[in-house]
Amino acid sequence: MASCSQPNPDQPDLLSSLPDELLIKILSFLPTHIAARTSILSRRFRHLWEASPCVHLIAFRREGFITMFNRALLLRNPSHPLVSLSLEYSGSPLPASFIHSLRAKVSSFGVRHLTVRGRYLIPILPIISSINCLQSLSLPVINFEFDQFPSGITLTCLKSLSLELHSFYSKDQIGQFLSELCSLEDLHLDTSYIDSLCLSSPSIRKLKLIMHSTLNLHSVSLFLPSLESLHLEIREYFNCNLFRIHGEVPLLQRAVIGLNCVHARDVSAITRLLSFISNVKELSISVKEPQDEKHPIPFLFEPGKDVPNFHNLKHLDVHLCMHEHSFEAVIIMLHNCPNLESLKLVHKIPKSTIMTKGGERTDRESKLPRNADGNYHYAFVRNFHLGENIKEFMKLLAKKSSSKMHAQN
């Protein structure tokens, strides 16, 4: 076995030759408790980490969090700007005197990017209104109440906001809160236990909306005239109907839709959803069938109803159980996409699928044509708009469809 090579004393120390500014930049990508360990390397590194423009404090015990706060923030040199601050704490309640010091110190640095995670850090939220230069705010899994937020927020520079609201809220509370953020462009909202949701903002351009436990949710309204990108994900809505979505999103260009455990009763809601976003250029949709759905159905469109026209659609990505009915719905959709350039179809196998001893599917088998890998799990085609590509591919799909579908087309 070869022994570890010893360092060559004649070889220059490239790390030490770097300027302090670059070393501090490198340390800023590390969690603070990791960056602090570099202080043992040499005298030069002893205090470099303390000048990092990014502080990420994460602790599970009260003593450790207080100690890290004292070193990284309380004793911080005011001449070192603090651009980004992330506080994550999941220990026991913090002393009131410490919370007071934390609030005072954080508000004095003029932080531009702030993340607060942990219910025992909720008392520091009032400092948000005092950070006028705040550009992004993230409050993941913090379970705060809206009345704990300072009233009359004037965060005129805030452009990015991420909230997880896992409690009972009304659409008026959420709407009022967002209406005070006049410069907001990027919104990530993770919600549950709400009866309706109305988002109205003239400035939001990117929206990621994840919804859980939508048992009582009956409608989602989006009046976002500047919205360009929408990511909508519905999780865990059990045995309730899929809610209806409406509003105005005239500039929408990209949409990512994820639907979990949809049933036959949800087909009309899915059709309305696709009509709502039919002007997009890029569309990715994933539909997961429930385990208790006995009969395969065409989830994309309601039988006998008009199919939305996707005149601007250029890139389509569909993840769906490609059984006969869903496959035919995909073909109908493709006939309404005259400007399509690329297509990706992925067959999602439901967990409830019955398998034979040899592992072959005995129900809801994929109707996709055989691909280059010799299976029927996916189909991926580029350059639809060139030559006869789309015609040849549509002929290939038509061979896999039923005679009834073939006659309709």
TrEMBL record:
CDD domains: F-box_AtFBL13-like (cd22160). It holds the Pfam family F-box. SMART domains: FBOX (SM00256). Residues 12-63 form the F-box domain. PROSITE patterns: FBOX. It comes from the Eukaryota. InterPro entries: F-box-like_dom_sf (IPR036047), F-box_AtFBL13-like (IPR053781), F-box_dom (IPR001810), F-box_SCFL_complex_component (IPR053197), LRR_At1g61320_AtMIF1 (IPR055357), LRR_dom_sf (IPR032675). This is F-box domain-containing protein. It comes from Rhynchospora breviuscula.
